[in-house]
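hiii, so i know i said id send this last week but things got crazy w the move. better late than never?? heres the sequnce for the chain we talked about at the cafe, plus the structure i predicted for it. fair warning i was half asleep when i ran it
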Amino acid sequence: MNYDFLKIEKPGKISEIYDLMAPGLKIPDSVDKTVGKILKEIESDGDKAIVKFCRQFDRFQAGDIDDIKVKQKEIESAQADVEKEFPELIKAFEVSRKNIEKYHTTQFKKDTGSWYMKSGSGKEVGQIMRPLGRVGIYIPGGRYIYPSSVLMAIIPALIAKVNEIVICTPPRPDGNLNRVLLYLFGKLKIREVYKIGGAQAIGALAFGSKSIKKVDKIVGPGNIYVTAAKKKVFGNVGIDSLAGPSDITVLSDDSADPVFIAADLISQAEHDPDSRSILLTSSLDTAKKAIKKIYENIDSLIKEYGNKINSRVILKSLKKNCKIIFNKDKAWLVEACNMIAPEHLEIMVKDTEEVLKKIKNAGAIFIGDYTPVAVGDYTGGTNHIIPTDSNARFSSSLSVFDFLKRSSVAFYTKDALEKEKKFIETISEYEKLFAHGNSVRIRFEKKQG
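okay and structure toks below
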């Protein structure tokens, strides 16, 4: 086919980067209103509302709440079938699982734990780290099935030793779940799974019902209805983040291979029509060649996979949200990258270490010609549930930390408290919280009676 929808942008002012970007995540009023009604009804009517919305939105005509819960025999049957039917897929899952476990176990050992420090005679302060009690994990369905997200979401929770893990995922209209998903639930020893998706799943997890116990936190990506619901229930339960369309930024110079750049931009466009693919390059020649290779790669994929590949989604995404940005000043490009705060950042430059030192905002970073985002999506071991929509400015990839909570701990002897008594009283009196100061002072007054 003849394509001509990409052009090279040459912004002068760094502020022009914002003008080139697609607008951020915005929940339409109609979605917000619908989600609000769903959550309100689930909060008040529990099981009855959950079944109602499962029939309405999941298109599964469940008889009652018991039909929504996955039976252990369904998992066991799927495990046996999948092991026979997909032996190579099972091998790939094992590689992925082991790498994810190794990465997140190392993360857990190095960066978490309980600790105490003595900061004076008779005084000790510290921290106790505890896993969350009950976590709800949402596994999306719809356009694609994501068994990789099962591994990414559940394994860190297991490493953190979360006591109860409950899964919600949309069923097919016949009421069954994908067998590969069931296989992984069995492999990871998950015993509580519900066939329910969308805002109704988030409501069930957040508010609970007669049959479903509410959770402490909800994690996992989903569509705009899931995101809107997570936003509304935050505070009633914890959430990981608000996920928008996926995005990639490739930062390159003249050393990068345009063929690789093109393939990686297209792979991100494959996710969703609203996915964002950006190339920041200091080489005009690389920019021109990357555009040419994007067009060639699209045709090659269509020729190889035919209707199996969703070329309509890819083309819509690239036409709408692919930006090829040139500026010969690499420092300018790094600043632009930090403003974009990409979900996925690929660095393909000669001076990798120098550039990496200057990257402040990125969810997941992939370095070199042979580390495409697909490595992180499947077998790298790092987590692919990453903040989107420039939220890498203040958020991080899903990790064991999302399944842990910290309690501060303080211990004072009478002598230690007496040394700080007057300072506590002084501050509390200034804030006019006199009972606070009294709670210290009373411990040193002569006891009556």
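btw The chain has a mean pLDDT of 94. thought thatd interest u
miss u guys!!
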